[in-house]
Amino acid sequence: MLQLRVVCPPDRTGSVYDALVAESGAVALSVSTSSSGAVITADVARECADDLLDRLRELGVLDDGMVTMAPLDTAVGELARRAEADAPGEGADALIWDDLEARTGEDSVITWTFTAFMVLATLLAAIGIVTDSQVTIVGAMVVGPEFGPLAAIAVGLVKRRPMMIRRATAAVVLGFVVALAVTAALSLLGRVAGLFDVGDVTGRAQTEFIYQPGWFSLITALVAGAAGMLSLTSSKSAALVGVFISVTTVPAAGNVAVAGTVGDWHQAGESLLQLAINLVGIVAAGVGTLLLLERVQASRGELRTGSGA
Predict the structure, then answer these.
(1) Which residues are CB-neighbours of 43 under 8 A, at least 6 positions away?
(2) If you write DSSP's letter for every residue of 81-145 in order, what string do you get?
(3) What percentage of the chain reaches a pLDDT higher than 70?
(4) CA proximity to 195, closest of 239, 130, 256
(5) How many CB atoms lie within 10 A of CB 28?
(6) Is the dihedral of CA 2, 21, 86, 65 positive or negative?
(7) How far apart are CA 214 and CA 277, in angstroms?
(8) Tens digit of pLDDT for each residue in 55-72?
(9) What is the pTM of this model?
(10) What is the dihedral of CA 153, 154, 159, 164, to 10 degrees?
């Protein structure tokens, strides 16, 4: 269940209220006023939220007002049961485009925080490479924030949002460029200081998967990209953490910097290929997952219209 809050001009209160009343998955409606206009709240089944937002857009609410949605962690009782039973499909399968675009859009903006996380994650990866520590590599995967803009690219491709694609692509490229530059500089400093040598980079068994791209690299990226997109659309954050741990984008970037520092350009090139395979695979899988979910949702809407007729 979601709590929907609509702020609209007073002259549109009746239309918005009627739209919510007509929705079988909406319950507990209330109307109040604020300095910004009329405020209408309702608890709605997640699976009917996308259709409701489309209806509110048609009424011009998104142009002149505001709509907010917040998940209800617990909703029990007859009203909640009836709303979920009357709404088509299952809440976990619901695709709410406005919510997805808003969340991935935020992640696609280049900020100091995003850049800092990219640098820190790549530095952790470099440390894991030098010390041949899988645990540190996993930590770098978790810290890396790159999945957000990659998901935004996938959403932008499906919804044909050129600006979103450009912004997210810029975030990914700039984030990795800055992270690589900082990591390379600090790696060079560490080598000069005697913290590691060529043997620490070339003779390791626990983390060699970082620079050995192959079919399984692509398969892993595709599976992880699909799982990540499903976790975003269903708001399953725990699954998203698993996705972070499964892809080697940040570790590969860290190895590009470290291997380049010791002059192992073959390994650096292999790591760069690993990075490209993962990035392309994640975006491709994200696009495919969204197209499939969109088709499933459209089919559900067709069944709903047919049953209503």
Answers:
(1) 1, 2, 3, 4, 26, 27, 28, 72, 75, 79, 80, 83
(2) HHHHHHSSS-GGG---HHHHHHHHHHHTS--HHHHHHHHHHHHHHHHHHHHT-HHHHHHHHHH--
(3) 87
(4) 130
(5) 15
(6) negative
(7) 9
(8) 999 998 888 889 998 888
(9) 0.82
(10) -10
